[in-house]
Design goal:
Length: about 675
């Protein structure tokens, strides 16, 4: 029988890095790529990369990427032969899959019937149990009466997990450790589930202490073929959001991998699965594993599987959707090496991982070579908006073994720099260097239990960092002076040397450096080749010996140092003892207005929607007491009282959309 031809054109019903990722494979295969975009994404990277693009509505997802008819209309007008949903948005929506098929367009994903069986976590667990796939004890019933749910929680026993029955991505999930917490946790979980997925049904299940998160990539075709491409470990999570993914998992031996792989395939066969899917398991400390869910789409972390198998999973999706059989058999899947993935986000780890937004005035990422892969949805100059997930890029590395992959990831992170919005680069560097990660013993709750281990920072930059920053700055000034002199009448004039030399005295020049909004004034004596400076009453002697684009070698007070150090725009980026220091270079003696912030006021940290007001005007509150719940960038943020006092002014209203820095609550301090 002749092999069916690939679809000729694909409309990508998504945005950001996954849309760019799909476009890349379409271009390689000669398939016309069609993008869709919202008002906020009119100039987005995926729009620029696609062969053509169609506007589908307003900036909010509900006004664009979640509008089934708008997406289908763009597909009809563009003549798209197929639609790829990416991940998120409509990717796991059975109604969308049915509407695509009804329109005579190929849906690049599983059948709607399979999605319906798996769309409810409760129904999926029951189905898996019937087919012999291990499941965690819990309650999956349709009766959602709060009193009944509380009784069921008592039957299951604490700790337990409340989970949204429809959805994923860490949304609508709460761990409850005692009965007194249940009511508030249930209400919060149902609210978040309703906002994210349009349904507030939940299920309850036993919470497995210190579990590992192990998932298996499965693939099925239209001819009865079904296989897995081994596992990915995603145990490094914060608030149920994956932070680090890797394959293979050091928690699995060959026998356990075979059993879990067989269970993953059995789970797929239970729903007649076609195309790409991921079977997620919880692995207990005792080696027992339990079915968690099947994600009926391509996962964010699919690149690590691609790296170790040498396969393009988007190409597999396109071939299966076109009616072709799976490219390989189970026996032909032969993974090689070790791969890691980290997610670079516009978020501030030092402010509770507050999502950021703004223009990326500078975006430096490592070169895609020597086992490094970058999947990005933005370029320098693009904006990270408040309407969508704040992911900037995914950093993926592939090496012969895990130690080499960890080293490669460290180098990749050191080459990253973001200016214009917050980023989690420093947090990721501390994560990848942490013993729990290095020793592959991290579990899904480790980050939440020990977050301070990843956020603790020194109060002052070390002397070696100040010395390196000064050396880089002097080197920069020398190069600039030399370039200016080269264009003048006498390139060899000694007066062109930027060393602060004066007749009858040693050269001295002021240098201003800044770190974490603190300013450091140094008096430098000497020049780029040799100088000394004073700090905290001590004088330090620096002798730079070598510099490359990424490293600096120098002698400091008789001790040699070789540090990752480079110039990133107006910043000096220096790594010392496993930490990243971004040193600013303000003008010397420049005036900086003192930060003015009312300590008695609570303001919106970013644009968003007020989902719950927890206090009333005139109420007495304690410091750190929750006052409001706000939804922004697909997350619920709890805003707390900055001090103990009385609510003197209450500007927030349930359901209200607020701008960044809007006054929400003003307190009168308790005397």
């Amino acid at each position: 029988m002749d092999t069916p031809a690939l679809v000729s054109s694909v409309l990508i019903a998504n945005r950001g890095e996954i849309a760019c990722r799909i476009i890349r494979t379409c271009r390689r295969l000669g398939i016309r790529s069609i993008a869709v975009y919202s008002d906020a994404d009119a100039r987005a990277r995926h729009v620029r990369l696609a062969d053509e693009a169609w506007h589908i509505g307003g900036s909010r997802p509900a006004d664009s990427y979640l509008r089934i008819e708008a997406v289908l209309d763009a597909a009809r007008r563009s003549g798209a032969a197929a639609i790829h949903p990416g991940y998120g948005f409509l990717s796991e929506n059975a109604e969308f899959a049915e509407a695509v098929e009804a329109a005579g367009i190929v849906f690049i994903g599983p059948r709607a019937a399979s999605m319906r069986k798996l769309g409810s976590k409760a129904g999926a667990k029951e189905l898996m149990a019937e087919h012999g796939v291990p499941v965690v004890p819990g309650y999956t019933g349709a009766d959602q009466d709060p009193a009944l749910l509380r009784r069921e929680a008592g039957r299951i026993g604490y700790p337990l997990m409340i989970k949204a029955a429809h959805g994923g991505g860490g949304k609508g999930m709460r761990v409850v450790r005692e009965d007194a917490e249940f009511e508030a946790a249930l209400a919060s979980c149902q609210r978040e589930a309703a906002n994210a997925f349009g349904r507030d049904r939940v299920l309850l299940e036993r919470y497995i202490e210190q579990p590992r998160h192990i998932e298996f990539q499965i693939f099925g075709d239209q001819h009865g073929g079904l296989l897995h491409l081994n596992e990915r470990e995603c145990s490094a999570q914060r608030r149920y959001q994956k932070v680090l993914e890797e394959t293979p998992s050091l928690a699995l031996d060959a026998a356990l991998r075979e059993r879990m792989g067989a269970a993953a395939v059995a789970a797929g066969r239970a729903v007649d699965y076609i195309n790409a899917g991921t079977v997620e398991f919880i692995l207990g400390a005792d080696g027992q594993f339990y079915f968690m869910e099947i994600n009926t789409r391509l996962q964010v972390e699919h690149p690590v599987t691609e790296c170790v198998t040498g396969q393009d999973l988007v190409e597999w999706q396109l071939r299966v959707a076109s009616g072709q059989p799976l490219p390989l058999s189970q026996e032909e899947i032969r993974p090689s090496g070790h791969a890691l993935e980290l997610r670079l986000y516009a978020e501030d780890a030092d402010r509770g991982f507050m999502p950021g937004s703004g223009t990326l005035h500078r975006l430096e990422l490592p070169a895609a070579e020597d086992g490094v892969r970058i999947d990005a949805g933005v370029d320098e100059g693009d904006a990270v908006t408040v309407f969508y997930d704040p992911m900037i890029a995914k950093l993926i590395v592939h090496a012969a073994d895990r130690p080499a992959a960890l080293a490669a990831m460290q180098r990749a992170l050191a080459a990253c720099h973001v200016v214009g919005t917050a980023s989690n680069i420093g947090f990721l560097e501390r994560l990848i260097d942490h013993p729990a990660v290095r020793e592959a013993r991290i579990d899904t709750g480790y980050l939440d239990r020990h977050l301070d281990e990843f956020l603790t920072r020194p109060e002052q930059p070390p002397i070696a960092v100040l010395a390196a920053a000064a050396a880089l700055r002097l080197d920069q000034e020398r190069d600039l002076a030399a370039a200016q002199a080269a264009g003048g009448p006498d390139p060899n004039s000694p007066w062109a040397l930027a060393d602060g030399w004066r007749i009858g005295q040693a050269g001295s020049q002021p240098m201003s450096l800044s770190w974490r909004q603190e300013r450091y004034e140094l008096a430098i004596s000497g020049h780029a080749e040799a100088f000394d400076f004073s700090h905290a009453g001590a004088r330090h002697v620096v002798r730079p010996t070598a510099r490359t684009a990424q490293t600096l070698s120098f002698e400091l007070d008789g001790r040699m140092h070789r540090l990752p150090a480079r110039i990133g725009g107006d910043d000096l980026i220096i790594h010392f003892e496993g930490r990243r220091y971004v040193i600013g270079t303000p003008a010397p003696f420049g005036f900086e207005a003192a930060a003015v912030g009312a300590q008695d006021s609570l303001r919106a940290p970013m644009p968003g929607r007020i989902v719950q007001v927890l206090v009333e005007l005139g109420a007495e509150v304690e410091a750190e007491q929750p006052l409001l719940v706000m939804e922004a960038m697909k997350m619920e943020l709890t805003l707390r009282a900055p001090l103990a006092g009385t609510v003197a002014q209450l500007e927030a209203r349930n359901g209200e959309i607020v701008e960044a820095d809007a006054l929400l609550v003003k307190l009168e301090a308790r005397s």
